[in-house]
Design brief:
This protein has about 300 residues and is α/β, with parallel strands linked by helices. The longest helix has 19 residues.
Length: about 300
């Protein structure tokens, strides 16, 4: 078994084609962190974290030194012990999921390179194509319709529409998307921007206009689990948790309180090993599971 001899970190910035606005703010570029794990057999593994201050309370500036500190903690450990490495990192850095995601992925990537297998195979799967959606941020109605039509032309069958700024504007934006891509499956992501009554009103407006929604994601504040449960009980559209779900303990609470119909699992919030546990919890509870991302590049994706 190969041992870890070092961990390095560097910034990874890239501009976005268009400003990306959600209810929590606007981003014009991704300011990420790349981690590389070196081993005694000269194999290198790579990982990436995408710290988003409004979601994980991390920044690129705070994440870089933490990745290097994590390297000091795991130096000398065997790659095969990646689950114990994950537990040690979580115990030492409980508030640094983006940094942990980068390091865990780099460790597991190095382990897979050492074995000569794709990462999917390590977890019992195979590397296969999958279908993703296109996200339409908070933009005016005309641009929302244009983006939806363009996405449909490019072959996207699933669209996620950002809302949570103003309920009237949100309704108009989603109706514009439905006009631009009438055959698309539409998901809504309010990013904590609504109240329960606003969520109910929005769902009723969509029903009255004949717009069928796949789900409404995180309509209320992340700490308002009771509000999520109320929305789930009173809205016929499936309700999903995003910012309310970081850890397996969060997943268990959501299940116990019957708060949601869907979990949006993002490795940037949970890191890789805990994400596998959340998958098991969702499956055991018979909840739908969506795998999401933030602004990671192809490295993490």
């Amino acid at each position: 078994m190969s041992r870890i001899t070092g961990v390095s970190a560097k910034s990874h910035n890239y501009p976005l084609e268009e400003p990306f606005e959600i209810s929590l703010g606007v981003q014009t570029e991704a300011t990420n962190v790349l981690a590389a794990v070196q081993t005694e057999t000269r194999i290198e593994g790579y990982g990436e974290g995408a710290p988003v201050p409004s979601v994980t309370s991390e920044t690129q500036e705070s994440t870089l030194p933490i990745v290097r500190e994590m390297g000091d903690l795991i130096e000398g450990k065997h790659l095969a012990a990646f689950r114990q490495i994950s537990a040690d990192l979580k115990a030492a850095f409980p508030s640094s999921p983006s940094a942990r995601f980068a390091v865990e992925t780099a460790v597991i990537d190095a382990r897979c390179r050492d074995l000569g297998i794709p990462m999917a195979e390590l977890f019992g799967g195979t590397a296969e194509p999958f279908e993703t959606d296109m996200t339409i941020p908070i933009v005016n109605d005309g641009e929302a319709e244009e983006r939806a039509a363009a996405a449909a032309t490019e072959g996207y069958e699933h669209l996620k529409v950002k809302t949570g700024s103003n309920i009237e504007a949100d309704i108009d934006r989603v109706l514009a998307v439905a006009d631009g891509a009438p055959a698309a499956n539409i998901k809504i992501d309010a990013n904590q921007g609504w109240t329960v009554p606003e969520t109910i009103r929005f769902a009723e407006e969509m029903r009255d206009h004949g717009v069928v929604l796949d789900l409404i994601e995180q309509p209320v504040q992340h700490s308002d689990i009771q509000g999520l449960a109320k929305a789930s009980q009173q809205v016929p559209v499936p309700i999903a948790a995003d910012e309310s779900l970081f850890t397996p303990a969060d997943a268990i609470r959501l299940v116990r309180e019957d708060a949601v119909d869907v979990m949006n699992l993002k490795l940037g919030k949970s890191a890789l090993v805990d994400a596998l546990t959340i998958v098991n919890i969702a499956e055991a509870a018979n909840l739908e599971l969506m795998i999401g991302c933030m602004l990671e590049s192809a490295v993490a994706i």
